[in-house]
Design goal:
50% of the residues lie in helices and 20% in strands. With 145 residues, the chain is of the alpha/beta class. It has a single domain, classed as Collagenase (Catalytic Domain), CATH 3.40.390. It has a 4-stranded mixed β-sheet, sandwiched between helices. The longest helix has 19 residues.
Protein backbone atom coordinates (compact mmCIF):
# COMPACT_ATOMS: atom_id res chain seq x y z
CA UNK A 1 0.00 0.00 0.00
CA UNK A 2 1.43 3.36 -1.03
CA UNK A 3 1.69 5.95 1.70
CA UNK A 4 -0.88 8.67 1.33
CA UNK A 5 0.00 12.03 2.81
CA UNK A 6 -2.12 14.97 1.76
CA UNK A 7 -1.02 18.57 2.25
CA UNK A 8 -4.11 20.82 2.33
CA UNK A 9 -4.63 24.54 2.91
CA UNK A 10 -7.72 26.00 4.53
CA UNK A 11 -9.34 28.98 2.85
CA UNK A 12 -6.85 31.62 1.78
CA UNK A 13 -4.00 30.25 3.91
CA UNK A 14 -0.92 30.02 1.68
CA UNK A 15 0.79 26.66 1.28
CA UNK A 16 4.11 26.79 3.13
CA UNK A 17 7.18 26.16 1.00
CA UNK A 18 8.15 22.63 2.00
CA UNK A 19 10.00 19.75 0.34
CA UNK A 20 6.89 17.55 0.46
CA UNK A 21 8.43 14.37 -0.95
CA UNK A 22 11.37 14.56 1.43
CA UNK A 23 9.03 15.20 4.37
CA UNK A 24 6.90 12.20 3.41
CA UNK A 25 10.01 9.98 3.42
CA UNK A 26 11.01 11.44 6.79
CA UNK A 27 7.57 10.81 8.28
CA UNK A 28 7.72 7.18 7.13
CA UNK A 29 11.20 6.78 8.65
CA UNK A 30 10.13 8.23 11.99
CA UNK A 31 6.98 6.10 12.07
CA UNK A 32 8.97 2.95 11.28
CA UNK A 33 11.37 3.71 14.13
CA UNK A 34 8.31 3.61 16.40
CA UNK A 35 7.22 0.30 14.84
CA UNK A 36 4.41 1.95 12.91
CA UNK A 37 3.30 2.01 9.28
CA UNK A 38 1.98 5.18 7.66
CA UNK A 39 -1.61 5.17 6.48
CA UNK A 40 -3.63 8.17 5.32
CA UNK A 41 -2.38 11.40 6.87
CA UNK A 42 -3.93 14.78 6.15
CA UNK A 43 -2.09 17.94 7.09
CA UNK A 44 -4.45 20.92 7.02
CA UNK A 45 -2.57 24.22 7.17
CA UNK A 46 -4.73 27.02 8.54
CA UNK A 47 -4.68 30.26 10.51
CA UNK A 48 -5.48 31.01 14.13
CA UNK A 49 -9.17 31.61 13.49
CA UNK A 50 -9.64 28.10 12.07
CA UNK A 51 -7.56 26.42 14.77
CA UNK A 52 -9.56 28.04 17.57
CA UNK A 53 -12.80 27.12 15.79
CA UNK A 54 -11.68 23.46 15.60
CA UNK A 55 -10.44 23.58 19.20
CA UNK A 56 -13.77 24.94 20.46
CA UNK A 57 -15.95 22.67 18.33
CA UNK A 58 -14.23 19.35 18.87
CA UNK A 59 -12.25 19.68 22.10
CA UNK A 60 -14.19 22.38 24.01
CA UNK A 61 -10.93 24.33 24.43
CA UNK A 62 -10.97 28.10 24.08
CA UNK A 63 -7.36 28.83 23.16
CA UNK A 64 -5.00 28.93 20.21
CA UNK A 65 -2.60 26.07 19.61
CA UNK A 66 -0.09 25.07 16.96
CA UNK A 67 -1.54 21.64 16.14
CA UNK A 68 -4.65 19.58 16.74
CA UNK A 69 -4.35 15.90 15.86
CA UNK A 70 -7.35 13.68 15.19
CA UNK A 71 -6.23 10.07 15.53
CA UNK A 72 -7.70 7.38 13.26
CA UNK A 73 -4.91 4.87 13.88
CA UNK A 74 -5.73 1.19 13.60
CA UNK A 75 -3.23 -1.26 14.99
CA UNK A 76 0.25 -0.37 13.77
CA UNK A 77 -1.02 1.75 10.84
CA UNK A 78 -1.13 5.40 11.84
CA UNK A 79 -3.75 7.64 10.28
CA UNK A 80 -5.14 11.03 11.13
CA UNK A 81 -6.02 14.61 10.37
CA UNK A 82 -3.67 17.27 11.68
CA UNK A 83 -4.69 20.93 11.71
CA UNK A 84 -1.65 23.22 11.93
CA UNK A 85 -2.03 26.94 12.61
CA UNK A 86 0.72 28.65 10.65
CA UNK A 87 0.04 31.83 12.65
CA UNK A 88 0.80 30.08 15.94
CA UNK A 89 3.81 28.29 14.43
CA UNK A 90 5.20 31.71 13.43
CA UNK A 91 4.61 33.27 16.86
CA UNK A 92 6.06 30.22 18.64
CA UNK A 93 9.16 30.32 16.41
CA UNK A 94 9.67 33.97 17.32
CA UNK A 95 9.19 33.32 21.05
CA UNK A 96 11.55 30.33 20.98
CA UNK A 97 14.16 32.09 18.87
CA UNK A 98 14.12 29.43 16.13
CA UNK A 99 13.39 29.65 12.44
CA UNK A 100 9.83 29.36 11.17
CA UNK A 101 10.93 26.42 8.99
CA UNK A 102 12.42 24.55 11.96
CA UNK A 103 9.35 25.14 14.12
CA UNK A 104 6.98 24.04 11.34
CA UNK A 105 8.87 20.78 10.88
CA UNK A 106 8.80 20.20 14.64
CA UNK A 107 5.03 20.65 14.65
CA UNK A 108 4.59 18.41 11.60
CA UNK A 109 6.41 15.54 13.32
CA UNK A 110 4.74 16.28 16.67
CA UNK A 111 1.43 15.16 15.18
CA UNK A 112 2.98 11.95 13.84
CA UNK A 113 4.51 11.21 17.24
CA UNK A 114 1.07 11.56 18.84
CA UNK A 115 -0.25 9.04 16.31
CA UNK A 116 2.65 6.75 17.28
CA UNK A 117 1.38 6.81 20.87
CA UNK A 118 3.56 9.49 22.47
CA UNK A 119 1.66 11.89 24.70
CA UNK A 120 2.68 15.22 26.23
CA UNK A 121 0.08 16.15 28.83
CA UNK A 122 0.82 13.85 31.80
CA UNK A 123 3.68 13.94 34.31
CA UNK A 124 7.03 13.56 32.54
CA UNK A 125 5.40 13.11 29.13
CA UNK A 126 6.43 16.50 27.77
CA UNK A 127 10.12 15.65 28.17
CA UNK A 128 9.57 12.33 26.37
CA UNK A 129 7.77 14.11 23.50
CA UNK A 130 10.49 16.76 23.20
CA UNK A 131 13.20 14.08 23.11
CA UNK A 132 11.27 12.22 20.37
CA UNK A 133 10.87 15.48 18.40
CA UNK A 134 14.61 16.22 18.72
CA UNK A 135 15.47 12.70 17.56
CA UNK A 136 13.10 12.99 14.59
CA UNK A 137 14.50 16.38 13.59
CA UNK A 138 18.03 14.96 13.78
CA UNK A 139 16.95 12.21 11.37
CA UNK A 140 15.66 14.85 8.95
CA UNK A 141 18.77 17.00 9.23
CA UNK A 142 21.19 14.07 8.90
CA UNK A 143 19.54 11.72 6.40
CA UNK A 144 17.39 13.81 4.14
CA UNK A 145 19.39 16.99 3.54
Amino acid sequence: MKTRIEWIVDGDTPMPELPLGRLADWIETVASRHDRLVGPLNYIFCGDEKIIEVNRQFLSHDYYTDIITFDYTSGRRIAGDMFISLDTVASNAEQLGVSYDQELKRVIIHGVLHLCGINDKGPGERAIMEAAEDEALAILNNEFV
